[in-house]
Amino acid sequence: MPVQSSDANTLDRFIKEHKKILVLTGAGISTESGIPDYRSADVGLYARSKNRPVIYQQFIKNPEVRVRYWARNYVGWPRFSSMSPNYAHKFLKNLEDKNKIVHIITQNVDKLHTKAGSKNVLELHGTAYVVHCLECDYTIDRHKFQDVLSSLNPQVSIKELYSVRPDGDVELTPEEIGGFKVPECPKCQGNLLIPRIVFFGDNIPKKRVQRVNDFVEECDSLLVMGSSLFVYSGYRIVLGAKSANKPVAVVNIGPTRADDCVDFKIEARFGEILPLLSP
User: Fold this and answer.
1) Using H for helix, E for strand and C for coil, what is the string for the chain?
2) Residue 219 assigned to a binding site
3) Cβ atoms of 44 and 242 closer than 8 Å
4) For the segment 79-104, what is each residue's pLDDT rounded down to a tens digit?
């Protein structure tokens, strides 16, 4: 469906009228970079697959889950980490340069805002680019960890045919996962190496939540881009802004959890609506 000029004008006016915009982005902002979201009708991960993201407690308690997770993540990493920022990421970087944005809070772990050059980015759900041990303070860059996994699993071939998921892994068959080896922590010899992301079922660190609350207090408006807000950590930000009587705008394809309480919502692809806005 083509972008309505009235929608572009409404969004343009919202951005012009506010000087301290807090931006919240979700998986929908990265789809035009080639990373699918979870909930889009027909094309989102949930529509195309019965598999769901790993639950934190499953990862902690079940060695088989950890092996499956890391096998899929290993195969998906080269493609996931090579993704580039799209027009929307660069658009927000430009707004930041103009001092229109106070902070960007992203639910994504893909680091595309940082790749676009944005400075004031809070990764609400962490980053896929760091691996750490849950039993000690050991950390390792994800690219270096890829080399470790590669040395342990020379039998695993990485193909470009797989469809990457929002958290960086791909779907593999049990046969493809069989025999995959995951290293122990080189510092404490534990077996709980995990990406520094907030898994489903895990909690966002309290200090990070407090920073979000501070950002909501600091801003004069909230712009949500590409999030369904069905995850409470994102929806809570909208509730906080509305309780402080700050205007909230949403650009997202498909329903959101906050449809009945935001000031306005626009359904459009970012690559189609953002170029229509004033420079």
Assistant:
1) CCCCHHHHHHHHHHHHHCCCEEEEECHHHCHHHCCCCCCCCCCCHHHHCCCCCCEHHHHHHCHHHHHHHHHHHHHHHHHHHCCCCCHHHHHHHHHHHCCCEEEEEECCCCCHHHHHCCCCEEECCEEEEEEEECCCCCEEEHHHHHHHHHHHCCCCCCCCCCCCCCCCCCCCCHHHHCCCCCCCCCCCCCCCEEEEECCECCCCCHHHHHHHHHHHHHCCEEEEECCCCCCHHHHHHHHHHHHCCCCEEEECCCCCCCCCCCCEEECCCHHHHHHHCCC
2) no
3) no
4) 999 999 999 999 999 999 999 999 99
Q: What is the pTM of this model?
A: 0.90
Catalytic machinery residues: 125
pLDDT digits (tens, 9 = 90+) for 10-65: 999 999 999 999 999 999 999 999 998 764 444 334 334 455 689 999 999 999 99
